[in-house]
Design goal:
Blueprint: E1 14-17, E2 22-24, E3 27-29, E4 33-35, E5 40-42, H1 54-57, H2 59-63, E6 67-71, H3 85-89, E7 93-97, H4 99-111, E8 116-120
Parallel strand pairs: 6-7, 6-8
Antiparallel strand pairs: 1-2, 2-3, 4-5, 4-8
């Protein structure tokens, strides 16, 4: 899915997402990540939705976003409430959606100057394995 280019200035924005990759500011990524308008934490540890834990959301605390967009992969799935505890404890808004929707929403909020972070579970292939590179 190609996303419309928004004038980004110095912001990180998602240009496109397919089943194999996410392109952000002309850089290709093939694994789960956390993105803010100013930073990217690539190779975020949850490789699949089932790998999500409260600990995997802790890196968001230091980023201090107003809202967290949790992209759960190709399909919308809701994690158990205990997994999202860090967002609740640190008063971060949380929106759960599939990863393509989280990318689109991230671009909109980032371009509006919002303090947003997208935690994107990205399963590059249907069997959960990662491509090389």
């Amino acid at each position: 899915m190609k996303l419309h280019r928004i004038h980004s200035g110095d912001l990180y924005l998602v240009q496109s997402i397919t089943a194999q990759r996410i392109v952000i500011n002309d850089q290709v990524y093939t694994s789960s990540m956390i993105i803010t308008p100013q930073s990217i934490i690539s190779d975020w540890q949850p490789r699949r939705f089932e790998d999500l834990s409260a600990d995997s959301l802790l890196p968001l605390v230091d980023l201090e976003p107003e809202v967290v967009l949790l992209g759960t992969g190709k399909h919308l799935r809701f994690p158990a409430p205990h997994i999202t505890t860090p967002c609740t404890q640190y008063a971060m808004g949380l929106e759960i959606m599939d990863t393509p929707a989280a990318c689109r929403t991230f671009n909109i909020l980032a371009s509006e100057g919002r303090k947003v972070a997208a935690a994107l579970v990205f399963e590059a292939s249907g069997d959960g394995e990662r491509p090389e590179g």
